[in-house]
Design a protein that fits this description.
6 helices, about 80% helix, about 170 residues, 2 domains, mainly alpha
Length: about 170
């Protein structure tokens, strides 16, 4: 079975240049070749029109060729393979760097995140215990009648409880 002209890269390349030359020939025929004046020099307007039409034909055929090429199955498959390989390479490099940092006993991002999470948990537990202690102290003071004068003077000046301090710290 003969290979299809659309799948053979050499045939596609040849087709592109054949089409481009045919379009340039048509453009030159339609726009006219640069004319010669009586002294043998080319006239400028005819030359610029012919050059513009040849340039337009060249760019149109290049655009059509690249559009066909970039939409071809081979190109799209190659781009997919390249992207898959790039992603795999990045993952391999990340894994290598993490192993290298670990072997050097240097902290990696996961270690720092785990430590930060652990510290946040400790902080929350400490604030909860401080709140409970504050409530117990207030209950003991109220039961024994101690600190009435202190509470009266405290009521006149604003203070922050540990719960409100924690909430303002989170913001």
């Amino acid at each position: 079975m003969a290979p299809d002209a659309s799948t053979n890269p050499a045939d596609q390349f040849t087709k592109f240049w054949t089409d481009m030359m045919a379009q340039m020939g048509q453009a030159a025929a339609q726009g006219g070749m640069p004319g010669a004046s009586s002294n043998g020099r080319e006239s400028a307007p005819a030359y610029t029109d012919a050059a513009k039409s040849m340039q337009r034909a060249f760019f149109d055929s290049m655009a059509r060729y690249f559009d066909e090429f970039m939409r071809s199955e081979q190109f799209l498959e190659h781009m997919k393979q390249t992207m898959d390989q790039s992603i795999a390479m990045k993952k391999m490099m990340d894994d290598f760097l993490i192993k290298a940092q670990t072997s050097l006993q240097a902290p990696v991002r996961g270690d720092v995140e785990d430590l930060a999470h652990l510290l946040r948990g400790i902080e929350e537990r400490l604030f909860d215990r401080l709140d409970k202690l504050e409530e117990k102290v207030a209950a003991v003071e109220e039961r024994h009648g101690t600190g009435r004068d202190a509470r009266a003077s405290e009521a006149s000046r604003p203070t922050k409880s540990s719960a409100s301090a924690r909430n303002s710290k989170k913001r």
